[in-house]
Specification:
- With 141 residues, the chain is α+β, with helices and mostly antiparallel strands.
- Strand 1 and strand 2 form a beta hairpin.
- The protein is 42% helix and 16% strand.
- The N and C termini lie far apart (40 Å).
- It has one domain.
- A three-stranded antiparallel β-sheet has the order 1-2-3, covered by helices on one side.
- It contains five helices and three strands; from the N terminus they run H-E-E-E-H-H-H-H.
- The radius of gyration is 16 Å and the shape is globular.
Length: 141
């Protein structure tokens, strides 16, 4: 069974929780991105860069349509309900962020470290997107 498949609150509740968590843990700016159906498809936020180096921007997606396929494959008959899939996806994203914040609060990681795959370069790509598009240029060792 998919985590949060019994979510009872609307997506906006979980989105607000994500925003609140980011703000209370040091985000200095937050924007929403929207898909063609005017649903929030992600959050773009800024954190202070380590050692006073300005700010780092991050792009955190919520690809709920991909999540919808997972719900379908799990045998959940509600997979056809876009709003249901959308809210469960945001509920799962909220839980992931809360788990990351627990690591941050215990000083095990820094905020930029948590979100490193989602840091945005000057071309608007995340680090992950850049590595995925050119894996031969990011060989380690």
């Amino acid at each position: 069974m998919i985590k949060n498949s019994g979510a009872t609150k609307g997506a906006q509740h979980y989105i607000s929780k994500v925003q609140d968590s980011l703000i209370s843990h040091g985000a200095i700016g937050i924007q929403m991105t929207f898909d063609a159906d005017r649903r929030i498809s992600g959050i773009v936020f800024a954190l202070p860069a380590p050692q006073g180096g300005g700010q780092l921007n991050f792009k955190l997606p919520c690809e709920w349509q991909k999540f919808q396929v997972v719900i379908k494959n799990d045998g959940n008959s509600r997979w056809k309900q876009d709003e249901y899939c959308y809210k469960v996806a945001w509920a799962c994203l909220k839980d992931w962020i809360e788990a990351q914040m627990a690591l941050y609060e215990t000083h095990m990681v820094s905020m930029p470290q948590i979100f490193l795959p989602f840091v945005v370069n000057n071309n608007g790509q995340t680090l992950f997107e850049q590595v995925a598009s050119q894996p031969d240029k990011f060989l380690l060792g």
